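Archive entry. Fields below.
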Amino acid sequence: MNTTKSQQVFDIISQTIEQHAFLLCDLPELAESDACPESGIRVDISADGDTSASMTLLLPESVCRALVGNLLDEEIAIDQRCEDSVIARDAMGELANVLAGTLFYELSEDKKPLLISTPAISSYNESYWDQLSSQSSSMRLLIDDVAMLFSISINNESIIDEALR
Amino acid sequence: MGLDILIIDDSATARKAIRKSVGMAPLDIAGVHEAAGGEEAFDVLDAEEIDLILLDFHMDGMNGGEIVDRLIGDETTCQIPIIMISSDRSEDRINELKEKGVHDFIGKPFKPERLADVVKETVGNDV
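PREDICTED_STRUCTURE:
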């Protein structure tokens, strides 16, 4: 683990969200609070090749709604949960796909092709948020004052430094 | 005369993001068409005069490489320039696709200015 790589992860996430979502909300920033384990969408994505990698995103409802608005100029019905929304699932899957493609490539040592899986989309609950946030591979990011949780490991090793957790 | 562009991507979000980028790029565009996969793309190509294809690589069903093979192998579509747009940035794969006939590659995420530059390099600066 080193801070340079951790900072690189954070920079890539910020840049990806900014460019891909044509950012209308605030840029992500590191969160200090443990707050906000509300429900939302969980996206898991992995890659195999000379390097193996995995990434998990926990995106609270309000973050999903903000990103769907930015990406698609559409709104999810107020009485519909994001996990039940086709457009929210597609948008979060595509965002994870772009993040994973960029991160796995930039962080792999040899820049060899990796076979990236289709994003697996589900929901998360408070206990899973707590479980993931306690792991060394995770970091919390704030978007519009709402925390999202991000976890990444390359070759089963965390690359998130304590200073950025 | 403006360009007719076909976006092939299985994600509605990606198609919308690319369409938005095309709209923001300083290009003369006559029309933007979309297809969620290979078969739908060939239906559009049968019906429309397409000047440029923006193609994703990783798709369910026919992937981008298979679509390139079919485009290149068909005399009615082999002259249409193809730009691959993908989050997969591996140089080996990009080179392999360029050898097949893909004109250029844009990594996701990208800015509209980058799209405009690549499109101009691919189809000429007069668009």
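CURATOR_NOTE: The longest strand of chain B covers residues 29-35.
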